[in-house]
Amino acid sequence: MMTASPAPFEQPIYVVRPLLPSLPSYTEALKGIWERQWLTNKGPLHDELEGALRAHLRAPYLSLTGNGTTALSLIFKALELSGDIITTPFTSPATPNSARWCGLTPVFADIDPVTWTLDPNAVERAITPRTSAILGVHIYGMPCKLDALQTIAKRHRLKLVYDGAHAFGTEIDGEPISQFGDATALSFHATKFYNTGEGGAVATPDPALKKRIDLLRTLGIQDETTVALPGINGRMNELQAALGLANLELVEQEYRERSRVAEIYRSRLKDIDGLSVFELPSHVRNSHNYFVIRIDGSGRMDRDRLNDRLKAFNLFTRRYFFPLCSEFPFYRAMESSRLENLKVAHRTSREVLCLPFYGKLGETNARRVGDIVEYVLKT
Ligand code: T4K
Prior knowledge:
Blueprint: E1 13-14, H1 23-36, H2 44-57, E2 61-65, H3 68-78, E3 84-87, H4 94-101, E4 105-108, H5 120-126, E5 131-137, H6 146-155, E6 159-163, E7 171-172, E8 175-176, E9 183-187, E10 200-204, H7 207-216, E11 221-223, E12 226-227, H8 238-248, H9 251-268, E13 275-277, E14 284-285, E15 291-295, H10 303-311, E16 315-316, H11 343-349, E17 352-355, H12 362-378
Parallel strand pairs: 1-16, 3-4, 3-5, 5-6, 6-9
Antiparallel strand pairs: 2-10, 7-8, 7-14, 9-10, 11-12, 13-15, 15-17
Helix pairs in contact: 1-8, 2-8, 3-4, 3-7, 9-12
The chain binds ligand T4K.
Residues 14-18, 67-69, 91-92, 94-95, 137, 163, 165-166, 187, 189-191, 200, 316, 320 line the site of ligand T4K.
């Protein structure tokens, strides 16, 4: 057992740092943009990235968007959803808020205690004649219960949408996650495993839906005089696409580095009372977007105290996702937000903590993080 206090980090260590190409390689890519003077509206880099990501993710069809929230909104509009959409409260505000923004009512259902994704039984209980869709979240890259949700959606003639913001590169038995359901939204925000600064995409197995998304993301403009749909501006621009192309070259190395950090965390944190690591099943390829631990209260310290005490070591962990979306003032009063309805989600949101997780953290710093977490929890 460690007794001497580990030294704090000299610089703040954040939960994530964005993947970035070298500045010279990015400025090289910018030269072409300057020469062409073509900044947005389906420029050549946009189209190149769309094709490259489709191939990389083995997505049947893929449309780039300005961010993940817009990707979700475009899906809801393209599917012409109305009424209620059943979703999880254990997620980013982006998930229910994008639905609400599109005139839908998010109805919260509880999560499964092991996968922390939507519990299919809870979903089925929440279905009413007002329900038009199910919105599952592959939280931390953990796939939703795909077969069960598909069966329910089919039985009740509902659309099935996935929020795959954390699931870049997630595969199940070698099958890419982006082919399931009617459509999957991806986020390429700076804090995601793969980023374009701000950015996102819609992946779908349906070519007709891809066509509608493409039209909706560009204000519905078909040609100079035809506006076919009441769309919005959901585009990605050329500067983002250039960053995306450069970052795509780096994802394999980033994945290896994050795998190494994850191994170090696992071995450093395995014998601490009350701490467990959130693990994905072996048939799932981890997206390595977050490294999540659970502090279940059986040890010496609760999650919030740990999160606070780590700050003294210049370590800034995050409580994704606390509070639950159902606790937000504008959702709190809904019937589905009642605590009795969301017991598993409520407990989970009070026990999870995301540790710093990015390739540049490096092995030495990962060991230091492990030492500090162990020290704080054991003293
Ligand atoms: N669905 C799910 C399940 C999501 O998690 C998200 C986004 C979405 C949908 C929507 O996708 P987008 O529309 O965003 O594409 C962050 C992100 O803003 C948000 O994208 C993300 N989820 C959410 C989980 O996390 P914050 O408020 O925690 O970010 P912030 O600014 O506190 O950053 C966290 C840490 O990252 C900082 O302490 C330092 C580091 N950082 C951050 C930025 C922005 C950097 O080092 N560089 C940066 O540029 O929300």
